[in-house]
Structure of Molybdopterin adenylyltransferase:
Amino acid sequence: MKNDKIRIGILTVSDRASQGIYDDISGKAIEQTLAEYLTSPWEKVYRLIPDEQILIEQTLIELTDEMQCCLVVTTGGTGPAKRDVTPEATEAVCDRMMPGFGELMRTESLKYVPTAILSRQTAGLRGQRLIVNLPGKPSAIRQCLDAVFPAIPYCIDLMEGPYLEVNPEAIQVFRPKA
Ligand SMILES: Nc1ncnc2c1ncn2[C@@H]1O[C@H](COP(=O)(O)OP(=O)(O)OP(=O)(O)O)[C@@H](O)[C@H]1O
Ligand SMILES: Nc1nc2c(c(=O)[nH]1)N[C@H]1C(S)=C(S)[C@@H](COP(=O)(O)O)O[C@H]1N2
């Protein structure tokens, strides 16, 4: 696929949302938050799947390699329950991990819930694409993205991805060389 647009993948991993038992509020919250942050035109590539590691890996590969999303944000499946395997799938498809993302998001989330440490959320690079895990709770989306997004445009710059422009009233990003 020709990469003439900024594409961002939104991947919800939830057994129940994928079965229609509840609405995917967390996936919508990711889209809404990114729409508030970004002034560059961008296109979402959305997927909603159950907590199956092979399927998560296949979808992450599709979103990064085929759909050429410079960024993929996942939600759900980061906890200690048996079926929570999003971090394992992320690690399996990435060539380099970015542990600072998980560290910062857990630290920030601890301001809201003592169970923040139960999330094994991580981030990593697949080639020139960045994958970031968020917890499943709808309220966690904004809390985590507000913490890590300031570093994401520069991370994508360093990987020679598209230049993401943001609304400084919504989020302050940091580009050391700018
Ligand atoms: N995508 C979502 N949209 C709306 N609410 C969600 C979503 N994901 C999780 N939640 C809410 O957050 C709670 C905790 O999320 P968690 O990911 O641990 O769910 P879960 O118990 O593993 O089940 P499932 O995989 O079916 O979502 C859920 O019980 C649900 O109320
Ligand atoms: N910001 C924030 N982080 C959070 C939470 C939350 O409500 N808000 N929930 C925690 C809980 S209770 C769990 S079990 C883990 C994993 O959630 P997940 O399996 O839905 O990804 O995220 C943790 N991190």
The mean pLDDT is 96. The helical segments are 15-18, 25-37, 53-66, 86-93, 99-109, 138-148, 152-158. The CA atoms of residues 10 and 155 lie 18 Å apart.
